[in-house]
Each structure stands twice: as C-alpha cells, then as structure tokens.
Amino acid sequence: MKRILVTGVSGLLGLNFSLQTAARYDVYGVFHRNQLKNVPFELVNTDLTQFDKVDNLLDIVKPDIVLNCAALTRLDVCEIHKNLAHQVNTVLPGKLAQAATQRGIYFAHISTDGVFDGGRGDYSEEDAPNPINTYARTKFAGEQRVLEANPQALIARVVFYGCSLSGERSLAEFFYNNLRKGQPVKGFADVFFCPLLANQLSEILVEMIELRLEGLYHVVSAECLSKHDFGVLLARKFGFEEELITPVSWYEVDLRAERAANLSLRTEKIESALGRSMPSQADGIDQFYRLLQDGYSQQIRSYKTISDSVPG
Fold first, then answer.
1. What is the domain extent for residue 31?
2. Whole-angstrom distance, CA of residue 158 vs CA of residue 86
3. Which of 19, 108, 94, 123 is CA-nearest to residue 64?
4. pLDDT per residue over 61-106, tens digit each?
C-alpha cells in the first residue's frame, strides 16, 4: 500500500480526503493545533511553519505522495494576519515541494479559484491570474513557489464545500445550519463560483494522483452559479424555505477583503485527462443531502477533540 502524507488534515478537504482514502492508502495526516481522535489513519503533530521541520517530517514518514492541503483560507483573516498568510500559503508550499522533489516524492498542491480577479469569468488554465486580496495573492505566490521547486508538480485550483470538523466552515453548512432553524440569511447574488462537494473533489484528486498528472488543473464543478442560488438549490433539496435567503451584493456586507465577482472556471483540461465530465451542482447537493441523512456530519464532528483554535 502506498503511503500518502496529507498536510492540513484537520481542515475540511484534508479530513474528508484522508477519511475517503484511508482504505486505499497508508495515510499520514499532519495537524498543528487542531488535534483529532479515533480517525482511521496515522496522525503527525507538527508546526510546518517552522520550516526546518519539513525535511525531518518527510524523512520520518517516507511518503510516496505528498498532498498539501494546509492553508490559511479565511479571506478576512488573511487581511489581518498577512505575514501568517504568507508563511502558510506561499512559503510552506515551496518548502514542501522542494523537499519532496529532492526525495523523488510525487507532490500535489491545492490552490484556489481565487487567483483570478473575477472581472469576466470563464477562466482557463492559460489565463493570467490577477489576485485581488491577500489570500489570493499568497495562494498564487504559493503556486509559483511550487512550480519553481518542481515543474512536474500537480497544482489543483479548487473551490469546495462539505462537512467540516466544526460543522460551521463551509457555505453549505452556513445555509443548512440557519435554514433548518428557520433563520433568515443573506446570499451574495453578485459572486459566482463553481464549487464541488469535498467528497467528490477527494475522489477526483485520487484519480489525478493515480494518473500522476502534472501541471495546473481547474478542478471544479462543470456548472457555476451565484452564492445566493447555491443556497436556494440547497434549500429546495432539504425542503427549507428558500424565501429565507435574501439576495444581496457583497458590497453591502462589512468585509475586509475584496471579493472576486465571477470565478467561473473552464474544466475541459481535467475532463479530457479523466475522460468524463465534472459533476453538476445538483450532483453535489444530492450527495451532500445523502451524507447528512446518513449521519456523516456527526461522524466528522466526532473526530474533534478541541474547538478550532486557528483559522485556516
């Protein structure tokens, strides 16, 4: 069984990926402050922003694959803690890619749709990024550091939702938690994206890794929509009152970080590599519904030992 090292394992994608692949890979999940319990894979506690620990980590674990999911992802937090965002989102990916390359380890890095300014949408991998906030700028710089260290590395630009350790991290959880209580919410009608369910994304990432894909890929849904319409789609699936969702502009909300308006991405490259279409929004919401009906969200939260202490 091949060994895979997953950084950021307590994050939404890192945890869901590790849980789904634990039967197929010998998974080692790296966390810093957010300890897990009773997970079906090995845990490694280390602060990777102490960059001298990166080489030692790889020498001890000896992975065949490294998947870097570690990131500081909250846009407004990144505006406040710009140096930490730089360390986690820019410097760390380069250090990991360099260390993995020196040891002949296949390296995959998770980036973001947010590297674009959202001025027009319909972006392909050939379009030049133009990040407009600290999170996006540090993530794009991280892509560049990875490719400088290893031009054969895999970089997946993603956007996703799903079940998180706290039960409150993803947009789907925000809508679900409020709407099931009958609480009104706001949804951005002028921000467009193409999210995948984290479980779907995890399966696609496994395929990409097994194919040993290299270079840059947009790994998102084939269908894009506004964040307001995403909430409406979820409400209809769960039988909630969609009228509780008020469409608003992101300009009307007090936010530190500027939001990119249209982050629709083209998916022809990944679809050609995998020989199939990317999932639709209905596909993802249907699976999210089934997961919650089956108690998956409670299962995820059962792995938590302490409250989330570090945004990311």
1. 3-165+194-222+266-287+295-301
2. 19
3. 108
4. 999 999 999 999 999 999 999 999 999 999 999 999 999 999 999 9
Q: Do the beta carbons of residue 28 and residue 46 sit within 8 Å?
A: no
Handedness of CA 199, 205, 207, 210 (dihedral sign): negative
d(CA 34, CA 306): 7
Could you tell me if residue 89 is inside a domain?
A: yes
Q: What CATH number is given to the structural domain containing 136?
A: 3.40.50.720
Whether 142 maps to a domain, the answer reads yes
CA 253 to chain centre: 24
| 305 Cβ contact list (under 8 Å, min separation 6) | 35, 36, 37
| Residue 207 located in a structural domain | yes
**Nearest CA to 171 among 226, 107, 98?**
226
d(CA 267, CA 163): 24
Burial-class residue 307 by CB neighbours within 10 Å (0-12, 13-18, 19+).
exposed
Asked if 160 contacts 201 with a C-beta cutoff of 8 angstroms, the reply is yes
Rounded average pLDDT over 195-206: 98
> Average pLDDT of the chain?
95
CB atoms within 10 A of CB 289: 16
The residues facing 45 across adjacent strands are 31
Instruction: List the alpha helices (DSSP H) in the chain.
Output: 12-21, 53-61, 75-80, 82-86, 92-102, 134-149, 171-179, 198-210, 227-238, 268-274, 281-293, 296-301
Token readout for 78 is 């990144």
Domain count, the chain: 1
What is the model's pLDDT at position 309?
Answer: 43
Calculate what percentage of the chain has a pLDDT beyond 70. Answer: 98
pTM of the model as a whole: 0.95
In this structure, is residue 251 part of a structural domain?
no
